[in-house]
Structures are given as C-alpha cells and as structure tokens.
Amino acid sequence: MDVQLFVPCFIDQLYPQTAFNTMKLLESLGCRVHYNPDQTCCGQPAFNSGYWPEATRLAHKFMNDFKADMPVVSPSASCTGYIIHQYPKLLKNDREALAQHQLLETRIFELSDFILNILKVDQLSGAFPHKVTFHDACSALREYGIYEEPRKLLRMKKGLEIVEMPESDTCCGFGGTFAVKNTAISAAMAEKKVLNALSTGVRYIVSTEASCLMNINGYIAKHQLDIKGVHLADILVQ
C-alpha cells in the first residue's frame, strides 16, 4: 500500500529519529512510504492561539502538500485529530478546498490506528523486554478517539508488559501554549503524571504524542528521575 508520511513539527524539530522510525515501521509492514519535503506545520498552534487567518493559510498549504486520494499517516493523534475536526471551520468559505478535505478526512490516520485498523496487523516482530506504562494524551483520547489501539500493538512486542498507571487519561500539563502561559500549573500537572508513572515501578512512559513526551521528559530531566518518556513508534520499530 502506498502511504504519505506527515511529520508534525515537534517530531521534525526535536525528535527526528521518531520520524525515521515511523517510516521504517511502515515499510516493514509492507507500505511504500512517500514523503513530501515541502510539508510544514498543519497550523494547530496558530489555530489554538486564535490566529485563524494564519491557520487558514497553513490549512490550504497542507491540502496542497498531500494528495487526497492516498492515505496520510502520522505519528501524532493531536495533529491528525485537528486536521479532521478543525479544518472544516477554516475552509468553510472555500467550496473546492472543503470538498478536498471531505475526501482527505477519511484517509488521514494516526499511526497505531492505521496499523491496527487499516493494515489489520495482528503480530509484530522484534522484542522490547521491559515493563512500560502508557500516557493517554488528551487529543488522542478525546479528539481523535484512540485508547486500545496503541496498547494492542505494544502487547504484540515480545517481552513487553504494560502496567497501567493511575489516571493515565489525565492531562500531562502540556496543552500547547498552556505550558508556556501557565508554567506553574503545567509543572504541577507534569509532576503528578510522572509520580503516577513512577508508582508502577516501570522505566518507560509510552505515548503517541511527542509534545506530551517533551513536557514529561522535561520534568524528568530536571529532577534526574530514573524513568523515560518514549514515543510509541520508537518501541514498535524495535
């Protein structure tokens, strides 16, 4: 199957290896991965900050950068959920772009959703002999709508055991510009998330969202804790 890879800003700028691992994983599952180097931000930060004209320009660019008749896969439920649910608000006055989006919204997928529900993968090679816990990002759980998908894929890795943390679905405190505008509250939320993870005795916190992991790992690094946030793709490719 031919697929297009959409790499979100946080991964492109801060965790490029996750992008490469996403490509390697998809190729190992039989996909022919196409990457358009002209792609940029989907516009979510601008949209969430109230800059809708700027977000609209980025929405139009995204629609031009990706073909609507080929699946688009991304290692982020946040960006894909935003594109699916918020682009219609930005494109409502452009009939042609809106029609293109109606086709695209049925063909853009978060990575674990695509692997499990489109490719119908029921086994993965390789091993990750560690206990992990899972952080359900707000956007992944509540906007995009995934919960079991990443967990089912993790359980396919030989030697991996999931230990659920308390309040796995509670926000980590990132929330885009929330972490910048409300640093004290954000830090307190990150602390609670990390302490909940530590209570399970695991060494790894897994998530579908690089932005959440950046916030979580920032707290971990500051306090020199023996735990690490890791993107789902970086484990599945092992």
Keyword list:
globular, alpha/beta, 238 residues, 2 domains, 4-stranded parallel β-sheet, Rossmann fold, single chain
Strand fraction band?
A: 5-15%
Strand order of the largest sheet: 2-1-3-4
- Total number of distinct structural domains: 2
Helix coverage percent: 40-55%
Q: Enumerate how many helices there are, as a single number.
A: 13
Record field, number of beta strands: 8
Which overall shape is indicated by the principal axes computed on the Cα atoms? globular
Structural class assignment: alpha/beta
Instruction: Supply Rg.
Output: 18 Å
Mean pLDDT: 96
Q: Sheet with the most strands? A: 4 strands, parallel
Query: Which residues form runs of ≥5 with pLDDT under 50?
Result: none
Give the SSE order as H and E letters. Answer: EHHEHHEHHEHEHHEHHEHEH
Distance between the termini: 22 Å
The quaternary state of the protein chains shown equals: single chain
Blueprint (SSEs and pairs):
Layout: E1 2-5, H1 9-14, H2 16-28, E2 32-34, H3 44-48, H4 52-65, E3 72-74, H5 77-91, H6 95-104, E4 108-110, H7 111-118, E5 131-134, H8 138-144, H9 148-155, E6 161-162, H10 178-181, H11 183-198, E7 204-207, H12 210-223, E8 228-231, H13 232-236
Parallel strand pairs: 1-2, 1-3, 3-4, 5-6, 5-7, 7-8
Helix pairs in contact: 4-5, 5-6, 5-8, 7-9, 11-12
Report what the structure shows.
Helix content is 53%, strand content 11%. It is α/β, with parallel strands linked by helices and 238 residues long. It folds into 2 domains: 2-118; 131-236, Rossmann fold (3-Layer(aba) Sandwich), CATH 3.40.50. The strands form 2 sheets. A 4-stranded parallel beta sheet has the order 2-1-3-4, sandwiched between helices. A 4-stranded parallel beta sheet has the order 6-5-7-8, with helices on both faces. The radius of gyration is 18 Å and the shape is globular. The two termini are 22 Å apart.
